[in-house]
Design a protein that fits this description.
Blueprint lengths: L7 E3 L4 H11 L8 E4 L6 E2 L5 E7 L5 E7 L5 E5 L7 E5 L4 E7 L2 E6 L5
Antiparallel strand pairs: 1-7, 2-9, 3-8, 4-7, 4-9, 5-6, 5-8
Length: 115
């Protein structure tokens, strides 16, 4: 059972810079873009299939996310005010889901098909 998520702070403001940081943390040579979204507040969210990492934008600190185990609902970790001023890369596990509080942008880094 995961007790905490790995969190990597990045100050990069460009998607290409964030992807380069992500490639250092996650084995993904097939990741070439970030799909940004603003999740609905309080709604349990599961990232798309093949998500290798999420990026939480707390540069403006308008919100937070909390990560939970899908099966048990057990709290894993979160990103909030303590990370203000950064974008946080979290290598993702498909056994997790998250819930947003406030207004926060989340980017999905998805492995594309090798075809």
């Amino acid at each position: 059972m995961d007790k905490a998520a790995k969190k990597v702070r990045t100050e990069s403001s460009s998607d290409s810079g964030i992807l380069e940081e992500c490639k250092k943390e996650v084995t993904c040579d097939l990741c070439d873009r970030i799909n940004w979204t603003t999740p609905s507040k309080g709604v349990q969210t599961t990232p798309p299939p093949r998500t290798v990492a999420i990026v939480v934008d707390v540069v403006q600190n308008r919100g937070a996310i909390r990560i939970f185990q899908k099966e048990s609902g057990e709290y894993v970790d979160g990103v909030g005010t303590e990370e203000e001023g950064f974008r946080i890369i979290i290598p993702w596990r498909d056994t997790w889901r998250f819930r947003a509080s406030g207004v926060v942008e989340v980017g999905y880094i998805i492995a594309k098909d090798a075809d």
